């Protein structure tokens, strides 16, 4: 089988014979960090991962737009359509707090509400007041429950616009996650009168980053290698950084990155605040915490590891039967958008070509692609231009596309941690999702081991899957929560 070309991912017409009906993908919800709402708007910096906000299509508010005391400011908000899908207790089991309870700047509140974030999720309730107090945080919460908002809201509240320096660093493990977090940060801060947000990652032009850092930047969202390079070159001056966030901390403190993280911290002030967020915390995180965090406030919202809204199934197949099984799933499931995981870049490209030959729309993405092509695929899939995405584990970390309601492990992972992050791409922010695993004879012990490790149940796939388990339209739009 020949390899599909990376440069030109093709969208084929969607056949009406299957659950993937012809037409655009139905948008769903907002980015992680809040309670649904608007999809992120495409930015003008798709080809480059280095972006400074307010230089795109959204004009900066002028001094005349300052909200005066007494104004009924909420009436002027441009709110997205209310997300009427049911939500699980992963995001609804709160103490009843409101965002206004945290005494946030009104301009920040405007951005929060215009993102469609109505009330803080449990991780946000626990995290925001502690982060505002300046204390270090070690937070463990499930994927897709609002961790991004939990740190971005206090981070933006503490930015001092009178200081023309980098005041906050957000470190993430992948380029795609850096772009996603920077877009959320830009949207939330758009009424704040000049917060400058920059994303910088490997695989992009270093000279462009150097030129941007010559201007005012308040918040830098970066991958470890690129920000360390800029710090060592003396371009990114981080001596006045007051807050550093490690998103997906377990990955950032793994063998691949931990030395770089130690070096980055050595350039920061000893008085900095450190916030660690992740769904899993292995020994490497505990060791780092003991060395660098000062009396951290520990948050653990992980009674169980898997999202309540994700129903998990497995199907026993031979390697030869996998594509046929996938075709059957496509014809029987009502897929809004799906993510299909393979264990290697080569298998991703081969499977993507096969899916296209079967007549389904398909993109693919993996780490060996050129960065501008990765950016384009990520951007287009997020905006609903394609229904299916085949990928490697590059796409498991923090990536939030709420229209995804089905995840398929075409190749079953070997590690429980990888499985947890993969299936967390569906069921985002308390919504419903489906995870289906194609299991070969060689995978059977891994399946049992991961079930035991995560304390979850992966059931044999039934002849017919109840659509109410993963299709939002099969529930009333009364806004009632799903009690799971």
Automatic annotation (TrEMBL):
It is an enzyme of class 3 (hydrolase). Keywords: ATP-binding, Cytoplasm, Helicase, Hydrolase, Nucleotide-binding, RNA-binding. InterPro entries: DEAD/DEAH_box_helicase_dom, Helicase_ATP-bd, Helicase_C-like, P-loop_NTPase, RNA-helicase_DEAD-box_CS, RNA_helicase_DEAD_Q_motif. It is found in: Cytoplasm, P-body. Residues 309-469 form the Helicase C-terminal domain. Residues 1-83 are annotated as: Disordered. Residues 128-299 form the Helicase ATP-binding domain. Residues 69-83 have a biased composition (Basic and acidic residues). One of its GO terms (cellular component) is P-body. GO terms for biological process: response to heat; stress granule assembly. Transmembrane segments: none annotated. A motif (Q motif) lies at residues 97-125. Pfam families: DEAD, Helicase_C. Its EC number is 3.6.4.13. It catalyses: ATP + H2O = ADP + phosphate + H(+). One of its GO terms (molecular function) is RNA binding. Residues 40-65 have a biased composition (Polar residues). Its main location: cytoplasm. Residues 97-125 form the DEAD-box RNA helicase Q domain. PANTHER family: DEAD-BOX ATP-DEPENDENT RNA HELICASE 50. Belongs to the DEAD box helicase family. DDX6/DHH1 subfamily. This is RNA helicase. It comes from Paramormyrops kingsleyae.
């Amino acid at each position: 089988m020949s390899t599909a070309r990376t440069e030109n991912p093709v969208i084929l017409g969607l056949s009406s014979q299957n659950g993937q009906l012809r037409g655009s993908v139905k948008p769903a919800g907002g980015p992680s960090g809040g309670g649904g709402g608007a999809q992120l708007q495409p930015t003008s910096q798709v080809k480059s991962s280095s972006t400074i906000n307010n230089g795109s299509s959204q004009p900066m508010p002028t001094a005349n737009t300052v909200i005066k005391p007494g104004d009924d400011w909420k009436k002027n908000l441009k709110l997205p359509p209310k997300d009427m899908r049911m939500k699980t207790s992963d995001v609804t089991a709160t103490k009843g707090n409101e965002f206004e309870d945290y005494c946030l700047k009104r301009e920040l509140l405007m951005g929060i509400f215009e993102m469609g974030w109505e009330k803080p999720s449990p991780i946000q309730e626990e995290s925001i007041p502690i982060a505002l107090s300046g204390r270090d945080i070690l937070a463990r919460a499930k994927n897709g429950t609002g961790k991004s908002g939990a740190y971005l809201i206090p981070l933006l509240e503490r930015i001092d616009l009178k200081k023309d320096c980098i005041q906050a660093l957000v470190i993430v493990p992948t380029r795609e996650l850096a772009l996603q977090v920077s877009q959320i940060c830009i949207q939330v801060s758009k009424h704040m009168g000049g917060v400058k947000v920059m994303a910088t990652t490997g695989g992009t032009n270093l000279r462009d980053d150097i030129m941007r850092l010559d201007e005012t930047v308040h918040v830098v969202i970066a991958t470890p290698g690129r920000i360390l390079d800029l710090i060592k070159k003396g371009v990114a001056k981080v001596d006045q950084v007051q807050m550093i966030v490690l998103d997906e901390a377990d990955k950032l403190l793994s063998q691949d990155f931990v030395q770089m993280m130690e070096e980055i911290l050595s350039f920061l002030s000893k008085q900095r605040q450190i916030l660690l967020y992740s769904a899993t915390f292995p020994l490497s995180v505990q060791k780092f915490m003991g060395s660098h965090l000062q009396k951290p406030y520990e948050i653990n919202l992980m009674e169980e590891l898997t999202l309540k809204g994700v129903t998990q199934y497995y199907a026993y197949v031979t390697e030869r039967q996998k594509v046929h099984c996938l075709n059957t799933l496509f014809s029987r499931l009502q897929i809004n958008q799906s993510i299909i995981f393979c264990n290697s870049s080569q298998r991703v490209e081969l499977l993507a070509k096969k899916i296209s030959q079967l007549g389904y729309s398909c993109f693919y993405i993996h780490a060996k692609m050129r960065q501008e092509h990765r950016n384009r695929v990520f951007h287009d899939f997020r905006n609903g231009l394609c229904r299916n995405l085949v990928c490697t584990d590059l796409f498991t970390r923090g990536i939030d596309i709420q229209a995804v309601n089905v995840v398929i492990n075409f190749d079953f992972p070997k590690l429980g941690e990888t499985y947890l992050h993969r299936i967390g791409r569906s069921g985002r922010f308390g919504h419903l999702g489906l995870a289906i695993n194609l299991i070969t004879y060689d995978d059977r012990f891994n399946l049992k081991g991961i079930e035991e490790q995560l304390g979850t149940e992966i059931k044999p796939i039934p002849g017919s899957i109840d659509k109410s388990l993963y299709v939002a339209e099969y529930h009333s739009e009364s806004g009632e929560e799903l009690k799971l």
